[in-house]
Amino acid sequence: MKHIQLGSSDLSVTPICLGTMTFGEQVDESLAHRILDRSLERGVNFIDTAEMYAVPPRAETFTLTEQIIGRWFAKTPGAREKLVVATKVAGPSRGMPWVRGGSADLTGADIIAACDASLKRLNTDVIDLYQIHWPARNVPMFGSLYFDPSKDAAVTPILEQLQALQTLVQAGKVRAVGLSNETPYGVSEFVRLAEQHGLPRIATVQNAYCLINRTVENGLDETMYRHGVSLLGYSPLGFGLLTGKYDASGLTGPDAPAQARIAKFESTRKQRWGRAEALDAARRYNALARANGLTPTQMALAFCYTKWQVASTIIGVTSVAQLDEDLDAWGTTLSPEVLKAIDAIRWENRDPAT
Fold this sequence. Notes:
GO terms for molecular function: oxidoreductase activity. This protein is of the alpha/beta class. The protein has a single domain (about 5-240, about 305-330), classed as NADP-dependent oxidoreductase domain (TIM Barrel, Alpha-Beta Barrel). The protein contains 13 helices and 10 strands. An 8-stranded parallel β-barrel has the order 3-4-5-6-7-8-9-10, surrounded by 6 helices. The chain has a two-stranded antiparallel sheet with strand order 1-2. The radius of gyration is 19 Å and the shape is globular.
């Protein structure tokens, strides 16, 4: 895999990134370390985590994923030097009282304190890419469709957050900065203020991108292209819907895979990935894959791996075998006919997992 540069930063990464939010919940520490070993062995040089992980989020597993990775670094000589490590500071608590005591804001001081804590858990002196996990301001996200001005409230300005990120960069604790779950406005404002005040310029935005959620293509892609910001696409398999494993059973039927995330965790089914419309659309894409001699996983990943919008695709796995399957899909190409059929399905179903 040819390495790509993230935004205007000096970070050079593989176009596949190992996401780790399953570590500490579906994946125990021993298995997580085997997955990390295998990912490194297969040449992936980019891993992503967050202080909020594992997922689904709960007080008992808050920060656990970073701890698991930090212990792997401690026992694996040379691993840290081979990897670009990304993590994220959680935004406002969104009903999680264990995140900064339930604060409805993300201040500059919060960012600096969270970064220092992540550095210790990760057992490293520097975080290569430090991201704001979701905005502090009022925006539609995680399944909300519409912006509602009546929900606006006073929160820390973007400028203050950028100044805190600058403090971390100047201290040598962070190499580059990014955003997650952002909007075109948010990206443009972070870039504008950074250029106006000589502050760190965001290199990346990490947003959902997959066959059942292509909302990035509704304007965010142009924004990122014009500003030279790279997309890190997460959930390329739509929380498992695009693997085909729910096609026959549904999400909760007696034959549903019991240990799969969306079947196992009720809180996940209440989110955008658990909508009936999302499964209906996924079944159509999965059938298209099979009709063209591909597995649903191969087609869903190849779609993300080959789109110009995506700099690096974040894959999440619960076994070494899944990791190998996802990596083996690299190099799969989709014919013009298949791409046309994919667009036809989207025209009828739009983005049901928005």
